[in-house]
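Standup notes
- DV: blocked on the single-chain target, sequence here:
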Amino acid sequence: MGSLQESSDSGRSCCDAHRLDLNHQKPGWRNFLAFVGPGFLVSLAYLDPGNLETDLQAGSNHGYELLWVVLIGLIFALVIQSLAANLGKHLSELCRAEYPKYVKYCLWLLAEIAVIAADIPEVIGTAFALNILFKVPVWAGVLFTGLSTLLLLGLQRYGVRKLEMLIAGLVFIMAGCFFAEMSYVKPPASRVIKGMLIPKLKGSTATTDAIALFGALVMPHNLFLHSALVLSRKVPNSVRGVNEACRYFLIESGMALMVAFCINVAVVSVSGTICSVNNLSRENMDQCSDLNLNSASFLLKNVLGGSSKVVYAIALFASGQSSTITGTYAGQYIMQGFLNLKMKRWLRNLMTRCIAITPSLIVSIISGSAGAGRLIIIASMILSFELPFALIPLLKFSSSSTKMGPHKNSIYVIVFSWILGFGLMGINIYYLATGFVNWLLHNDLPKVGNVFIGIIVFPLMAVYVLAVLYLTFRKDTVVTFIEAEKDEHSARTHVEKKLEAEKYDQSARTHVEKKLDNSNHTFELSHLHREDLIDIHLPN
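- DV (later): unblocked, structure below
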């Protein structure tokens, strides 16, 4: 399998910047390491403050009974994220190529709204952490979150591997806090396993909490993010090479989501164990009955004592900052993919961040921490509404021969993924519709106001259903798949043109020509990895 890597960094030598290895002698684990990164960055979305809050509430209200939702949700997420990773092209770019102009712009606006909605819990969670640590107002914490995210993204100048290590460190801080508390409270293993394997919905709020927990695990912006991040890895343009890359992406996504699953289980178990003890103080009982990000620090008191607030705030800060970085990545990829905007990275990051923090800033200034907490619930409903507009194109493109060629999903994967997709969309639409109807029936507005809102909203719901049906049944027409070059002569010609265009030095040209002359098998041309999306270079 061959690999060809381009780099815009003129400071590197030509041999380092353009590597061509036709013998494919590297061990399997070395090849696998080259694909590690995208899945772990994407998995941070399953550890953001929004997920943390739904985990805390599920544990405090239902103990271990909703752990099966976490397990099934992350299995479903693995399937969907694998489809995004195997797409071979950026999902938003495929949408731009396939759909008519007005549909394309509508999908872009919906994707941007999804990024903003996903960013709200992350920004507010970080602001709550700063409020706990330094007593700064929530609105000031929101502003600092936007600034700190841009500073962290600036670390890309020193290599994205360093940024990946920083993000991993933040995640492990959060995980360490809850694993330490879990080891102290010792939740009964039999009940935890029973909660994972036996579905149960007991209590008046169990269905709502289960849907909220499930809906927080599959988010639309993550599908755009994963399909873009994998393009920074070099994938050979051959059936064997693509299949091997897909296998590596699946393994990496599985490992990343397993880590996310363990952390989510730890959070639910800690909350469920502490809030179900018999000798709970009146103050802690009140906190368990209305558990949220701003009041959950008491869960860590057993291990950390008086410093529990500080360590919890650090864990919350780590969760918020790591997930806001991935949200910023998703925003810039969506803007570039749908609109084909070419701008400097710092400017793109700045635009994305300003758009994303605006709603959180306005609400925190007007309503303070209480309003910011309610905004998290609204954000989860928006994400539920948005999911079909990213999921349906993904399911269609990954199953289409015009987009995937011979690499399209098998009939079994097509049937399973569509059943899974409609199940996910059905759950989210049910959550959205029942939430709105319940609010309409129990709010304090006069009847005239409710009638007026119903006249506006119900036709919009009909338009929403029609839009979902349009995306589902519209036939794909644009061919984007390009066949791999099949013979050695065409591959030789292509590589020689590349060498000429990029002005390889004489030694690099001689090395490549010798490799071509000595090769007795079909040459497999590698895709050029996407430097325009993100500079994630492979480990040596």
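- Follow-up: Residues 1-25, 485-489, 512-540 have pLDDT under 50 and may be disordered.
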